[in-house]
Amino acid sequence: MMVVFEVSLARGSDAENILSEELLKETQAQVMTVEQARAVGFAGLPDPPADKVVRLVAVAERDARWVQRALETSAAVSSIRVHQVD
User: I want to staple 13 with a disulfide (CB 3.0 to 4.6 A). Which of 32, 62, 65, 76 is the partner?
Assistant: First the structure.
């Protein structure tokens, strides 16, 4: 099982700053644009709103809480939606 976080970035934020290098390394989380996610097989993704920058963060279910806490406290993140993927 995998968890995908749909992350809307705060205005003027850089997507590179939503998760630390350490967290990415420890969890093997993948940060992708919607287009990149579609290219690797995530189907049925809606287009992001034109006025928002969206990134998808895919992570194993075992690490989802850790990643979610990091996203919730990141100044670069304005909102998060969580999706379970089989």
Answer: 76
Structural domains in the chain, sorted by start: 2-85 (3.30.70.260)
Distances (CA, A) of 18 to 3, 69, 76, 77: 16, 11, 6, 7
CA distance 86 to 81: 17
CA angle, 30 as apex, 28 and 34 as ends, to 5°? 170
Q: What's the confidence (pLDDT) of residue 49?
A: 85
What pTM value is reported for the model?
A: 0.92
